[in-house]
Design brief:
The complex is a heterodimer of chains A (about 100) and B (about 475). Chain A is flat and about 55 Å long. The longest helix of chain A has 22 residues. Chain A is built from 3 helices and 3 strands; from the N terminus they run ααβαββ. Chain A is mainly alpha-helical. In chain A, β2 and β3 form a beta hairpin. In chain B, α14 crosses α15. Chain B has 15 helices and 14 strands. Chain B is globular and about 85 Å long. Chain B is about 40% helix and about 20% strand. The chains are: A mainly alpha (about 100), B alpha+beta (about 475). The structure holds zinc ion. The site of zinc ion has 8 residues of chain B, from loops. Chain A: It holds the Pfam family GatC.
Amino acid sequence: MSDNTRPLNEDDVRHVAKLARLQLKDEEIIRFTEQLRSVLDHAADVASLDLEGIAPTAHPLELSNVLRADEVTASSDRDEVLRAAPSVADHRFRVPRIVGEAP
Amino acid sequence: MSSLPEGWDMVVGLEVHTELKTATKLFCGCANNFGDEPNTNICPVCLGLPGSLPVLNEGAVEFAIRIGLALHCVVQPSSFHRKNYFYPDQPKDYQISQYDVPINGPGYLDLPDGSRVGIERAHLEEDTGKTTHVGGTGRIHGSDESLVDYNRSGVPLVEIVSGPDIRSAEQARGYAAELRSILIASGASDGRMEEGSMRVDANVSVRRGTEAPFGTRCEIKNLNSLRSVQRAVEYEALRQIAILDDGGTISQETRHWDEDAGKTQTMRSKEEAYDYRYFPEPDLVPVVPSEAFIRQIEAELPPMPAQRRRELIAHFGDAATDAQLDQANAAVELNLDPFIVGAIEKGITPALALARTANELAGLGDDAMSLPKDDYIALLKMEDAGELSATQSKKVLADLVAAGGGDPKAVAESKGFEQLDAGALDATLDEIIAANPDEWARYREGDDKLTGFFTGKVMAATQGQADGKAVNAALRQRRS
Ligand SMILES: [Zn+2]
């Protein structure tokens, strides 16, 4: 997506959908390609502005250093949290085994 | 220094993750406590529940800056990004990390051997939960599954990325060891590799000669000890050279180090490489440490290992042997030098304090550091005064460390350790000399090699209760 000159195509949308673990039908790919392209076109309008001499913005709020003291506060009740999980064993969340290691 | 075939050069960079010793997690007030009951330190923020909002921990920022300053880094304004990926150890499906602007920019680390390794960055990020894989013999028949504990999810980490400046497996180990000492000395981390609070990944490539362009690199994961770092880097460089020598090519991939097999194995290839779709974390604002805050942290930074090595060696003056210099380096590397300096200041013979610390205390693992210094010094005092033999002293030390401290006198008594009195020693010597008349004759004629023979016999007969120095003195006395 760093290549600003190339228009977004259906393969890009398939790639992004795969990364987001979304299973899309072909007609959805076509529709989302159009929609995403119009979003990117809008962003391109911003990119066409002359921003010479204007510092990049890291955050829309004019704030920095929002910090909290390193002090322990109460955690959630374990049983209550685990009751909301689909599957539990030994006080832990039980999930299907994922092949391979964490990235 | 390198053991690579003639004409080959290796290029190594290390990525080190270290957990910070904060009381709480990076973005919530849950306790940061290794070893607690599973899922007892969790809340909506570190579980990634909708509507929860992260708030940055001031203590983690301070520790990160300490690490940066100790590594001569540029401490700078920084911001956070989301690194997106799906894996059950990460309940939000993204990890909050620093991307284009880390809190610590370029710096360097000087090794005891005089070489310098550049630091590219040292940034803040959150740790993931702990997954445990259980096999198909579990309660659900025939299924493989994973169990997840989120106590570690959100624990503050600093990731330290070195430049591609390392040129041998020994240097890689030396870098990891010195970095570990610095992290512990800074107070930011406990550096326990076997508990996973410090984790090392190595990027390794090889090239023909020191001027050639860098080759294709592989990333090696699962280096859980300093020894693994050295062995894995050496193995990987030789593996790549063998492939290139055969006319093959290296494919960029992530490889897993198997310590038992002594090999690296493919984990995933570049085609499967993750696309993390980093984007700015909208729920966190930038961190802009003031110059005054940075200078205050700098002023409070404790002495670093390089300085402590110099100070320790100064106690031995010019008389230090090469072996003692090695012992001093080993002691500082393990942050045990305060035990030696403390003992010397209390009047213990410096050579004894150094030897017991670098040889025995260092061999007792991470628990050694938790032994109260006063208990240790009291034990050395007993040995220095001849109240305990070296063998006895080592046994008492092992017990003290296992128990997390105690009164060495009481431990020695409970083990029945009393120094053999002169009469008992004489009687033992009489028996041994009578049983070994030929050796005794040669010893009397001046064969000093037999000193060890007789000392060993006395030690065996007394189960180590005799004091080696007293045995030597008695032998010499009988010869004259
Ligand atoms: Zn939490």
